[in-house]
Amino acid sequence: MATPTPEELFAPVAHDLSACGRTSRLVERSPDGGGPRLWRQLVVDSVPVGYLEFDVDLDTDVQVEIIAGHAQDAVLENLPSLTDSRAWPACRPGHAHPMRLVPAAALDSDSGPRWVCPADPSFRVPVGGHPGPLPQA
Ligand SMILES: [Zn+2]
């Protein structure tokens, strides 16, 4: 299998941002002092929120998990600058907290990392499969 590109690895995270009403794109740019590894600047809702580092030697699930975690940190740290200040990824209706990233290894899952409700661990969605904010019950 060909080595996935940063854009391919980011696709599940882009899906979950889009599902929650946010736009995102990657810019080919590295931070000052960025080494020979692959870097991309993450732009969410037209705001540059930080840099993501890609390590093509790692397993794809592990890379997606790392990227999802760093993207979440970058979005949450920059919420005051974003037009939509809701936590990301959105949890159940009435839950103001963001969903928590849980690695596949912690879930005995063969299907990749998950977003999990910190209050009700039975509520979980795959990274890349966020259904969008659920309607109020
Ligand atoms: Zn929740």
Mean pLDDT: 90
Elements, N to C (H/E)? HEEEHEEE
- The number of E-state strands comes to 6
General form: globular
Could you give a short account of the major beta sheet? 3 strands, antiparallel
- Count of helical segments? 2
Can you walk through the features of this model?
This protein is α+β, with helices and mostly antiparallel strands. It has one domain (6-126). It has two helices and six strands. It has helices spanning 6-19, 60-77; strands at 24-27, 38-44, 47-54, 100-102, 114-116, 124-126. The protein has a three-stranded antiparallel β-sheet with strand order 1-2-3, with helices on one face. Strands 4-5-6 form a three-stranded antiparallel β-sheet, covered by helices on one side. The longest helix has 18 residues, at 60-77. It is globular. The protein starts with 5 loop residues before the first helix and ends in an 11-residue tail after the last strand. The mean pLDDT is 90. The structure holds zinc ion. Zinc ion binds next to loops. Residues 91-92, 95, 97, 117, 119 line the site of zinc ion.
